[in-house]
């Protein structure tokens, strides 16, 4: 009994010691969270940015639904629409449904739906300089080659589909036709073994997603995921700027509407359109202050043009040419 009591006492002391260490660690984690995370993140953006709380909630719900549709989580998106009473038109959902149906088939290495879609949209794909249809035909041809010599005649017959693409993809077609020489010996042991690489399936999924989204007017990446990634980069900077503005009591310098108080570099991945900054006022142009091209070819903002007018004439700040301010033309990037 004495030995058992001693063992129990030692075990209890060990448990108490371990619990003390764990409790200390958990306590430090909580303090670290309180120290590094600001609970008033919403204070970075003024409520005046949104029309109303209901409008804000509706925009967020719509962004989440679009993200779910784009990720192929169709049942989750439908459930969210029902529970949030969000009315989503069928015209909005249809492109995502079609996109996910074809992508699911490609993941199962079924080229049929993608080929059918590419052929039906051939003209519009050509206008986008897309090579999607050729890559789909090439992948089908490679699948026939991988089936062995018994599919040689079928592969030769299918090669007729390459005829419309002969001018743009001559080299690739020559490589595929040259691989027929090694068909009986086995392509996996030939100089053309790279044709059997499984990476072609991942590539065709990326190509289809990019070209189909461009054709259907959809973004390749979910706007919600892009906004979230951008916010992770921008939020710490905005929190610091907000603290400085409050400290210096100059809250009116940032309107929150169409501009940020400081330039935040998000990388080339987030460049979606051309941006022009006026070389005179050092301000980014906007709809209310668009870029204006002068007769001499130099471009400045409209606000800079108005400030440079002297006696009804405008002298270009970069060259000696004088001109009528009314001759300036607005540029749309």
Task: Write a short abstract of this structure.
This protein has 333 residues and is mainly α. The chain has helices spanning 2-36, 53-70, 74-83, 90-107, 112-120, 122-127, 132-146, 152-158, 170-178, 199-216, 223-248, 302-308; strands at residues 291-293, 299-301, 309-310, 313-315, 322-323, 329-330.
Explain this structure:
The chain is mainly α. Among the domains are: 90-216, no CATH class; 277-330, 2-Layer Sandwich (Herpes Virus-1). The chain is 53% helix and 5% strand. It is built from twelve helices and six strands. It has helices at residues 2-36, 53-70, 74-83, 90-107, 112-120, 122-127, 132-146, 152-158, 170-178, 199-216, 223-248, 302-308, and strands at 291-293, 299-301, 309-310, 313-315, 322-323, 329-330. Strands 2-1-6 form a three-stranded antiparallel β-sheet. The protein has a three-stranded antiparallel β-sheet with strand order 3-4-5. InterPro entries: CRA_dom (IPR013144), CTLH/CRA (IPR024964), CTLH_C (IPR006595), Fyv10_fam (IPR045098), LisH (IPR006594), RMD5B_dRING (IPR037681), ZF_RING_GID (IPR044063), Znf-RING_euk (IPR027370). One of its GO terms (molecular function) is zinc ion binding. Its main location: cytoplasm. A zinc finger (RING-Gid-type) spans 278-319.
Task: Kindly list the characteristics that best describe this protein.
12 helices; 3-stranded antiparallel sheet; mainly alpha; Herpes Virus-1; 5% strand; 333 residues; zinc; 6 strands; single chain; cytoplasm; 53% helix
